[in-house]
Write a structure and sequence with these properties.
heterodimer, A: 111 residues, six-stranded mixed sheet, B: 118 residues, four-stranded antiparallel sheet, 0% helix
């Protein structure tokens, strides 16, 4: 089963609002990734983080790799209707290259 | 094609039937992953290939699940004697690299095959 705790489970926000979601783990990961999945599609990579403390932006998206290596957050600023979808965090341990995913955050935007 | 291609997109199987799901990775990609995504959940790792070698099959839920990549390109995930709990989306991902070290080295996912066992 999932080993990453992702919250919130869902969000229904007004267009233009900022969004924040996070992921925590009881164990250390050396890579954190954030994906977006639209209905009927595979996950698409948004941001990748490789160093503890790293803060990375991709347009209106900003993500941080927690200093303890056990957590990460994703912020979306000034949300727009096309931000609707399911956002997943994923972690990769030091040895091995498979990903462990969170259960996802469903984002809905009211225009 | 430009991306990871999976077929069929949808498969309905009667309980007890065997199924085969195909993944065509991006040409030249070394790493290939299979993940299982149950409804309302994140993907869960099934197995990993580096070229034709299956290096990790720790996520396969039972011996009814079998994956192969005989020539290091196309991969097939086979499920024998399907059961209702096998109903899920099966995602394939491929990467040119063995390990991701930057965003552009991470794996690309296909659209998945939605398997429904009735």
């Amino acid at each position: 089963g999932q080993q990453l705790n992702q919250s919130p489970q869902s969000m229904f926000i007004q267009e233009g609002e900022d969004v924040s979601m996070n992921c925590t783990s009881s164990s250390i990961f050396n890579t954190w990734l954030w994906y977006k999945q639209d209905p009927g599609e595979g996950p698409v990579l948004l941001i990748a983080l490789y160093k503890a403390g790293e803060l990375t932006s991709n347009g209106r998206l900003t993500a941080q790799f927690g200093i303890t290596r056990k957590d990460s957050f994703l912020n979306i600023s000034a949300s727009i209707p096309s931000d609707v979808g399911i956002y997943f965090c994923a972690g990769r341990r030091e040895y091995g290259n498979k990903l462990v995913f969170g259960a996802g955050t469903i984002l809905r935007v009211k225009s | 094609g430009a991306g990871v291609s999976q077929s069929p997109r949808y498969k309905v199987a009667k309980r007890g039937q065997d199924v085969a799901l195909r993944c065509d990775p991006i040409s030249g990609h070394v790493s290939l992953f299979w993940y299982q995504q149950a409804l309302g959940q994140g993907p869960e790792f099934l197995t990993y290939f580096q070229n034709e070698a299956q290096l990790d099959k720790s996520g396969l839920p039972s011996d009814r699940f079998f994956a192969e990549r005989p020539e290091g390109s196309v991969s097939t995930l086979k499920i024998q004697r399907t059961q209702q709990e096998d109903s899920a989306v099966y995602l394939c991902a491929s990467s040119l690299f063995i390990m991701g070290t930057a965003k552009n080295t991470e794996a690309f996912f296909g659209q998945g095959t939605r398997l429904t066992v009735v």
